[in-house]
Amino acid sequence: MGSFLFEPIRMKFRLGLLALTFVAFVATLSSRSATGTQTPPIAKVLVWVRDVRGAPVTGLTADDFAVTENGNPDRIVGLERFFSGAPIQSQNAPSRAAGSIPDLDQNADRRAGTTTQILVLLAPMPVTGRSHAIADALHFFSNRHAGNWNVALVDDEGNSLPFSQDLDQVGAALKRLERHYAPYAKRSSWYGGVHSAIRLLSVLPGRHVIILISSGNGTPPSALIGFAVAAQAAMYTIESEGPATLVPFGGAAEGQGVEFGPVPFAGGGLGQFVQAAEETGGLSVDGVKDAFEHISTDAAGYYLVSFEAKPQELDGTWNAFSITVKRPHLNLKAPRYYAVPLDAAAWQMPADMQAALESPQNQNGLHVVADSWLFPDQGGVHWGVFAADVIWDGGVPPIGSRVKIHAELINDSMHGLSGTWFEEEMWPAQAGALHWQREARVYPGSYLLRVTAMDTSSGKIAAATTTFMARPLDVPAFRFSSIVLADACLPSSERAKMRQSLLDPLQQEGCKLAPAAGASFRSKDNLRILLRVYPPAQKFSQLVLTQWKAYAVIDEAQDKASELTISPAEVRGLTVAGVLPLNRLDLVPGKHRLTVLFVLHDHNSKPQNIPLQTEFSIGR
Q: Would residue 351 be called left, alpha or beta, if left means φ above 0 and alpha means ψ between -120 and 50 degrees?
């Protein structure tokens, strides 16, 4: 998988393209090949189209859009519509020309219901602008507003409020700021708080929006453009001392040399509020209320356009492009950049598997369960373990039959493909189940794992998905891995196919665990439990070893709790492990809850508990 958002980004841009479109969310892309031949990478871009009255326009098709890159047209290969509520009145869409874009005979319709993550930034500024900004924000947050959004705040001293649907917390914080004013906080402190908040915003699911409140004499909006583009966030700028006047391309770029690296955008003076907003896909607005109204309008409907991109280099940078709508009297907001992954070589699902998926009679007799586990102490990124159990329903598969497995790891934060696996294996002898397991580094973001399996003899096929979030790891903290449940070790033949790691988190006493994807066990199994703890410093590791206890509790029955061992890991962190003989627990068939309960013993106070939970089931 390529690197994620937290490296200083490098961008390619051409001034000729900067004035063509508004920026919304940064498009990302993936490249696939069915036979090893490189095919053009596919970029996906979110597009908002409005009529002259500002109302969303529905009913457009792929033929209504045009994409160009380096002055040359790119081929559109897909379009999806996302609109919420009642159908919105739109102009009639023309019928498609015969033979045009043949693989787009069906434009997919979806219902828009995505949560919008909104980060409000109150920048350091002179007292007059600050007073106006807080009064305007208080006027909005002091009233009830309905919307499918989570809101966070970073104030002008770098203090932050977490993302929440509770707008009252923002109003309360603003009231405290109204009564307290510390002259100009150090910019480094404010940028530090903003940097952390935008990193978190970048990995949250849904649409990303930044509302920047500043003044002409305060923090320059251009200093945040790089952050906003990397986080796929549309930035709405508010000049707290009045509306700005646009200065085309401004003066010398501001914010150069700030900790997050160079930002190749020009801008200066009051016009930078307009330009910074347009560069990132938002608007320069009059106040907080105006910003939320535009955000709500954007949530009502949009398109996802896919096109064959033609980046000059497959090097992980951002490439400029332009997308326009062909119909007159329509306004469009869309990205100016898409991200090229460091490794754009991925693989399509084999043609026979694609054909089997389209045949209903092949989708019976086989099922797949998939799951993932994260270990958050791997040099700033997570170590991810991915597994699937492929199960033949009733009996065993034909002798000599094989299983084709195709897995995709999709980064929903970046709307792109992060990794793929494809392999073909023999069914285990006299067994109706096959275990598949792989590992990879996982950068912060929201992910979907999709695993598809097909029996080669019968053509039976099935798929499963699971979702998870990998949170940023830049702040020192106690971190806990996922809880791993397993009843077997991974065979040496399978271990040979996997990436070897000296910090392998599944390695325990010579056994590399094979976690059950469906967490389903037999009543006679010995259930292995494994969890990793990563304290922020060695002194905390020693504290855990001396003052913490860990117990496995099933279905809240603490009187039957089993103590787990806490020990130093082979390289870093701590290992929490134990074995539960299920035949001694008298568990009924069905689902059960397992709690790993940490008890913190402190001689000066009563014990404190930290519960971590998962579920498993006992088969009949």
A: alpha
